[in-house]
Amino acid sequence: MTPSFAIQHAGQAAQDEPLFVFGSLMDMDLLAVVLGDCQHLRHAAAVLPGYRRCCVEDEVFPIVVQDDISTVDGLLVHGLTDRDLDRILFFEGPAYALLPCEVDHLDSDRRRRTPARAFFATALLSPRSQSWDYAYWQAQEKPLALHIAAETMALYGSVAADELSGALWDGIKARAVARLSTGEGIRCAA
User: What is the pLDDT of residue 49?
Assistant: First the structure.
């Protein structure tokens, strides 16, 4: 099967522009499930100005929405290969679009604005007014998110990313909940 989102980044190597992550992909355990290996990556703290992070209705992951007075803390990820980016695009599915943005980060003790890319929600996701909290996610929701990621990535290469919705998505979540409740370990399909 052809990589699901190759045309979204055709003509530009993945490593040319860093990826700003602001949700569950900040967690290196989850990123390792998605990529199979993330030891080759470099990352640094960064901030996305003009947005706030909020919960998504009935999900364990966040979205960002425009808000002129807010900023979103996250990580600027460098060193992604085309394969890495394709796997992340698959994981994010049709609920997100990879778009250019500008983030602020510290460079030699000086704040610097730099171009990046980030995943912004499509109309498939509905924000809640509640802010999404990374520390809460790690303490309470990470185990389920790891199972969902493993279920999702097990389908990489066999279904198109735009199929990761509706009944298929509901099945992924249901199997992840069942595996978590039985204490079954995470199966990574790299």
Answer: 95
For residues 102 and 18, give the distance between their C-alpha atoms in angstroms, rounded to a whole number: 10
> Which sign does the torsion angle of CA 87, 127, 98, 68 carry?
negative
- CA 176 from chain centre, in angstroms, equals 18
- Helix boundaries (H) for the chain: 28-35, 82-92, 134-136, 142-153, 166-182
Q: pTM of whole model > 0.70?
A: yes
* Whole-angstrom distance, CA of residue 50 vs CA of residue 81: 28
**Using an 8 Å Cβ cutoff, are 24 and 60 in contact?**
yes
Print burial letters for 16-53: b (CB count within 10 Å at least 16), e (below 16): ebbbbbbbbbbbeebbbbbbeebeebebeebbbeebbb
Q: Rounded to an integer, what distance in angstroms lies between the CA atom of residue 33 and that of residue 22?
A: 17
